[in-house]
């Protein structure tokens, strides 16, 4: 059978299906689905993504069979509507729109009103069709075709329409007269002719030109950039949708709009969207006119009041599509002469809080099951829910002090404070030295890199579905749009608002949840989730916090791996526990050494000349360490606490300034010169590979002995007080079997001594970190002396690549830029290299001890992609920073479900 390249839809049926997104693109599949459900969709057809692939693989040419199939389908629309494409007697007008399998808002191009030419416009007017309407359609066609197909900047056409408004002294395009539009058309033709690219009068030439432009746009810079940022491969290609036009700009009983079936910022189940009366599609998304909201509430104006039948129809369509597609939809519609037509449905982009709430609500409504909810709620959505907000009182004080500059539409939740950048390029540049807020009239796909670099995005124009709003929500950035009182004067490098002039580089604060823009800096503070869960402020609890907890409890039912936390203080341990940590995977004891009243004793211990001085210092430190451990073990009562013995090179603890050194010399009753000499003798050329980790414990055992004693005494004391303390002792930087063997003996000796002294015992497992490649290679031998392994993937990455953790910043950005590395291996585990060591060591360790407990405590323990990998190689737990615990819980569940790390969009 010959391959089929074109699929019809409309008139109550469709050749394609809603699940054929790869072949028909998202838009084509949505149209086929709606048509199949009998939802009113203007008739049309979809040219498949296979044609796009063929086009790019065969020197920009089409499969030979395409032409006939395409024309047959065009004929079918003509027959259905009783019109002819290019027929001056009864012309059919069509739109040509792109549609890839994954939606790329604003990335690809659309052309409306194809099929018009000078003769057809005149013939229609002669027949009595409204001249204003026809010319409005034609001038739009000229500018869209000029921009997308002929490569003439749309700004040239915008200047023409702006002049027309000024000539007639009107504020908006629909007010321009028919004669004024005739002039706009003449000038439009002139622009194209001046560029040597006259507008094709032959409608068939127009339609093929438009189809080619869509396929071309698959490979334009902004589409490639979008795919790069969202990690989409370029393999799919785009489909092309050709569809009979319906007109939202045919008069004041016409409109066009976009709607989400639920609120995309909060997730609330309420139709949410905007429309413009007497306008065509791109007017809404382009943000040129600020649209009306669909349902602002009882009594106000809105779609329900202006177009009651169409509004009811839209509610019905929304409900049917949600029931059918089991997801929140983003709809495009047009109302012509009061009649509703649907032009698009797709899964709607939403903020993190909205995503979680919609997933939980849909389970409760019976639309999806819990596992599906876990697939939809992505780790990044939880990250957004933990993102900062402004303190209510501080913001109110700032407002009272006259710092409120403007209020716009709250398009992306979250608080941000940073310096003003007025262009995307400047934003990207300035972001290198601190947070930046990008302020524009409106954004366009060219701004994507600057948007990515900014902490917040603010526009003076546009609505909740403008480019800025949609893209910012997808990126999880705070965003305010339509702040109409801002005057963005890019050439002058300034922003004028509320009688003030702010310059590029000045501080600005924005609350994307409320839409408020404030001058100056305002420190963002903890999110609602953190306020409720960690700070115990129950009065701010909302549905959003409930949903956050619900989704995590469902994650716990699914996941195989445990989630532990890295915490060094009782406070951190409590945060971790509140977020659901099942243990402490890494307590870095050195952090305790930096405490103001201990550091002097630590320094004395290090610099002591002779055993006596050293022992005296250690004796001072022992009770301090013991009380540290008591605190953290109490906070984690009943759960394991993995305490790592001292790791960093000793000279890190020494004073770096002369004054401190002199003070210390005085305390120790030695001369500053002697002390300086001793300190210098400890300096190393390569401390990361030097005298650190267990090498310290083995060459100066009294330090580790003191620490083990402190742990044992703390645990026994707690046990006697009826508290279930569960410490585990972990050795850093082990590389050989013998190291581990000796360390174990040392530890056991001290434990036995303390147990005897205190008169009780506690079961304290002794394990090791695996962070030196050699340790991974000989894991089978090391496991003979270890009760558990914990991968220190920070050091393991450092030593496997040979990249210094502290110096990688010097070349990594360039490496990423040049594609020499796909991602930062310190952020997401290098599965192909470091991952092999992790997998090997886990397997080899378990050949020695089948039940060996294995976890990870490097930064990768909180990274969703790495978590999927760790699940795959059979680790028992991941340990991450306390605030990553919720993210790790969800990621671990997604790993079990095979849902991937998420975040690919
Ligand atoms: C590691 O190396 O991964 C680790 C957790 O230890 P640190 O970061 O303290 O070196
Ligand atoms: Mg380490």
What is this structure's SSE topology?
Layout: E1 6-10, E2 13-14, H1 21-36, E3 44-47, H2 49-57, H3 66-81, E4 94-100, E5 110-114, H4 118-126, H5 131-148, H6 154-168, H7 178-194, H8 203-217, H9 221-229, E6 238-244, E7 255-260, E8 272-277, H10 282-286, E9 292-293, H11 303-306, H12 308-325, E10 329-336, E11 339-347, H13 352-364, H14 370-376, H15 379-385, E12 389-390, H16 392-400, E13 404-407, E14 409-412, E15 415-421, H17 424-430, E16 436-440, H18 448-453, E17 456-459, H19 467-475, E18 479-481, E19 487-489, E20 494-497, E21 500-503, E22 507-511, E23 516-519, E24 524-525, H20 528-533, H21 543-558, E25 562-566, H22 570-578, E26 584-588, H23 590-593, H24 596-607, H25 611-635, E27 640-644, H26 658-668, H27 672-682, H28 694-699, H29 701-720, E28 726-731, H30 737-758, E29 766-770, H31 773-777, H32 779-782, E30 788-791, H33 793-801, H34 812-817, H35 834-848, E31 853-856, H36 864-872, E32 877-880, H37 885-897
Parallel strand pairs: 15-16, 16-17, 17-18, 25-26, 25-32, 26-27, 27-28, 28-29, 29-30, 30-31, 31-32
Antiparallel strand pairs: 1-2, 1-3, 3-6, 4-5, 4-6, 7-8, 7-10, 8-9, 10-11, 12-24, 13-23, 14-18, 15-22, 19-20, 20-21, 22-23
Helix pairs in contact: 5-7, 6-7, 13-14, 13-15, 13-21, 14-21, 15-37, 21-37, 22-25, 24-25, 25-29, 26-27, 29-30, 36-37
């Amino acid at each position: 059978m010959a391959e089929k390249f074109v699929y019809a839809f409309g008139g109550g049926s469709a050749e394609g299906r809603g699940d054929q997104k790869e072949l028909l693109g998202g838009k084509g599949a949505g149209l086929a689905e709606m048509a199949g459900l009998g939802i009113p969709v203007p008739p049309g057809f979809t040219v498949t993504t296979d044609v796009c692939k063929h086009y790019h693989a065969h020197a920009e040419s089409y499969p030979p069979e395409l032409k006939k199939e395409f024309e047959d389908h065009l004929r079918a629309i003509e027959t259905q509507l009783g019109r002819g494409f290019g027929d001056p007697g009864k012309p059919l007008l069509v739109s040509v729109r792109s549609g890839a399998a994954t939606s790329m808002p604003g990335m690809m191009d659309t052309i409306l009103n194809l099929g018009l030419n000078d003769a057809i416009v005149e013939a229609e007017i002669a027949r009595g069709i409204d001249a204003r309407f026809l010319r409005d359609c034609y001038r739009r066609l000229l500018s869209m075709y000029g921009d997308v197909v002929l490569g003439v900047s749309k700004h040239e056409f915008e200047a023409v329409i702006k002049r027309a408004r000024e000539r007639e002294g009107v504020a908006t395009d629909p007010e321009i007269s028919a004669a004024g539009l005739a002039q706009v058309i003449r000038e439009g033709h002139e622009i194209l002719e001046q560029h040597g690219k006259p507008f094709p009068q032959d409608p068939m030439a127009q339609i093929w030109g438009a189809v080619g432009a869509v396929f071309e746009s698959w490979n334009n810079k902004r589409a490639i950039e979008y795919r790069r940022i969202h990690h989409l491969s370029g393999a799919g290609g785009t489909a092309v949708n050709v569809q009979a036009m319906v007109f939202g700009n045919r008069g004041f009983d016409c409109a066009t709009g976009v709607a989400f079936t639920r609120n995309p910022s909060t997730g609330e189940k309420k139709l949410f969207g905007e429309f413009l009366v007497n306008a065509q599609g791109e007017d809404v998304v382009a943000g040129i006119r600020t649209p009306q909201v669909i349902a602002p509430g009882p009594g106000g104006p809105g779609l329900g009041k202006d177009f009651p039948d169409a509004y009811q129809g839209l509610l019905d369509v929304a409900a049917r599509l949600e029931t059918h597609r089991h997801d929140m939809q983003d709809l495009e519609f047009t109302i012509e002469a009061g009649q509703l037509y649907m032009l698009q449905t797709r899964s709607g982009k939403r903020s993190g809080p909205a995503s979680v709430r919609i997933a939980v609500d849909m389970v409760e409504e019976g639309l999806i099951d819990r596992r599906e909810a876990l697939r939809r709620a992505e780790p990044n959505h939880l990250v957004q829910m933990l993102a900062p907000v402004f303190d209510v009182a501080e913001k109110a004080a700032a407002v009272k002090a006259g710092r409120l500059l403007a209020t716009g539409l709250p398009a992306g939740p979250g608080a941000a404070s940073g310096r003003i950048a007025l262009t995307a390029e400047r934003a990207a540049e300035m972001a290198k030295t601190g947070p930046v807020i990008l302020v524009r009239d409106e954004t366009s796909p060219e701004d994507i890199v600057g948007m990515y670099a900014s902490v917040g995005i603010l526009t003076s124009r546009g609505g909740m579905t403008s480019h800025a709003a949609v893209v910012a929500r997808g990126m999880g950035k705070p965003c305010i749009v339509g702040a109409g009182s801002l005057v963005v004067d890019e050439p002058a490098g300034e922003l004028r608002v509320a009688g003030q002039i702010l310059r590029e580089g000045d501080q600005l604060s924005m609350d994307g949840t409320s839409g408020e823009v404030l001058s100056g800096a305002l420190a963002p503070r903890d999110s609602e989730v953190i306020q409720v869960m960690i700070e115990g402020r129950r009065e701010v609890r909302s549905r959003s916090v409930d949903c956050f907890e619900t989704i995590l409890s469902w994650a716990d039912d699914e996941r195989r791996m445990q989630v532990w936390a890295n915490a060094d203080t009782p406070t951190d341990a409590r945060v971790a526990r509140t977020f659901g940590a099942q243990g402490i995977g890494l307590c870095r004891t050195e952090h305790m050494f930096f405490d103001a009243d201990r550091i002097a004793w630590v320094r004395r211990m290090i610099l002591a000349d002779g055993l006596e001085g050293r022992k005296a210092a250690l004796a001072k430190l022992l009770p301090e360490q013991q009380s540290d451990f008591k605190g953290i073990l109490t906070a984690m009562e009943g759960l394991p606490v993995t305490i790592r013995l001292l790791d960093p090179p000793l000279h890190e603890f020494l004073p770096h300034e002369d004054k401190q050194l002199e003070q210390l010399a005085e305390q120790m009753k030695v001369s500053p010169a002697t002390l300086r000499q001793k300190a210098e003798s400890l300096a190393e050329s390569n401390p990361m590979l030097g005298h650190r980790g267990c090498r310290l414990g083995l060459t100066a055992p009294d330090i580790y002995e003191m620490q083990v004693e402190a742990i044992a005494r703390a645990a026994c004391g707690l046990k006697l007080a009826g508290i279930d303390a569960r410490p585990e002792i972990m050795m850093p930087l082990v590389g050989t079997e013998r190291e581990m063997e000796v360390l174990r003996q040392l530890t056991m000796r001290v434990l036995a001594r303390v147990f005897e002294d205190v008169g009780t015992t506690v079961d304290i497992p002794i394990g090791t970190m695996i962070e030196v490649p050699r340790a991974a290679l000989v894991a089978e031998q090391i496991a003979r002396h270890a009760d558990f392994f914990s991968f220190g993937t920070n050091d393991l990455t450092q030593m496997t690549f040979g990249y210094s953790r502290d110096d990688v910043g010097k070349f990594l950005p360039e490496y990423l830029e040049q594609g020499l590395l796909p991602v930062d291996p310190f952020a997401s585990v290098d599965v192909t290299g470091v991952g092999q060591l992790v997998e090997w060591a886990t397997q080899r360790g378990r050949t020695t001890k089948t039940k060996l407990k294995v976890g990870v405590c490097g930064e990768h323990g909180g990274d969703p992609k790495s978590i999927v990998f760790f699940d795959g190689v059979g680790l028992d737990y991941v340990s991450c920073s306390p605030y990553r615990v919720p993210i790790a819980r969800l990621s671990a569940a997604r790993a079990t479900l095979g849902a991937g790390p998420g975040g690919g969009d």
